[in-house]
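Entry 14. Two folds queued back to back today. First construct below, sequence then structure tokens.
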Amino acid sequence: MFKANLDEIDASLTEFPSLSDFFVRPLKPDARIIADHTNMVAPSDGKVLHFGPITSCKVEQVKGMTYNLQHFLGEPNWPHIDKEDSIAKKPVSDNYVTSLLKNPENLLYQLTIYLAPGDYHRFHSPADWTINLRRHFQGKLLSVNPKIASWLPDLFAMNERVVYIGEWAGGFMAYTAVGATNVGSIHVYKDSELVTNKRKWFNNAKHSEDARFEGGMRVQKGELFGEFRMGSTIVLIFEAPRDFEFTTEVGQKILMGQALTNGIVAS
């Protein structure tokens, strides 16, 4: 079924009343190993579409095709701990990228993972981190299949998406679940107030809606975070030192819990 690995499912196929329920199937406890030699791991199963440092607001969704980072994340008016200068001011162009950094000596990085229909559709925390804000963008539900992403610019910034903003050991982190065709329903276990794929806001009077978590929502590396009802995309944008190196390759099939880098990124 969709080339899914049925041997790792922690349930009988008869227990899934629909395909949507099958997509969010639970796995056996030992089906995924959380790497313990690093503090940054893959948040989901899937195919790596792109990764690397972010040097401008034009970020590659796949090789040769970009989306606008500022459109994707929105205005940076979220809490930002231990930074003297407010970043709530409207930035201009590539200043937006540097405005996200807690430490100006660091760089911003991104990793994009596409979940095909046969992949395990629950997603997990990539690191130990504290979430301060959730931003929900209502948008389209266009296919995020890599073939579509390769010819439609700004695709990720057009689709419905839920962005979680916070900090990890390396600094800033934005963890985004992007909706897609038939995947307007994004469920996050610790965020019961989130409702996606609902009636659009009246006359599109607002583009996004924020929810702040007083005191921060603490999540741990590998912790179960949420689920899609069918294939979609996870976009991870995070701050780290300039010598940060990924251990992944474009086109690689990765599993949740797999190390994204070797070693520990220090705070």
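Second construct, same run, same settings:
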Amino acid sequence: MRLRLLVPLLLLLGGCTTPLPPKDPHQAWVDLVLREPAVGASLLAEAQDGKRLDDGRYFQLTPGSHSLKVSYRYELYGGGGFGSRFGWREPLQIQCYLELDYPDFQAGRRYRLEAENTFGQGQITLYDGPRELMSSERGICSPF
């Protein structure tokens, strides 16, 4: 019985450690980064130009204009503030879907898409290699 449970678990964990594909020098690469990594927080690539992606760890794009959609989740803690007065003792799970349009992705360049939250709003910011701000978008998030 235990072996039956162990095999699927090992296969599932193996999928999490799949290496990233090689970076194509004829395309742009976008790394996804949490500005403030925390327990329960995640940032995943959801869609590129309206098409859902198979691997949510990165974007690899042809040069030119693209629309990038990400899923950003984090936990909001209510202890000590107004939350405990309203029975909110456990962390609240927050889900954001954020979309960013950028007109000039360049082949061979590496970009960095950072996510953060401020007072219930999610924000993603696109930087180029030398950390120059390229674009930024905000969005409203909701509990899930």
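Quick look at the second one. The chain is about 10% helix and 50% strand. Residues 9-13 have pLDDT under 50 and may be disordered.
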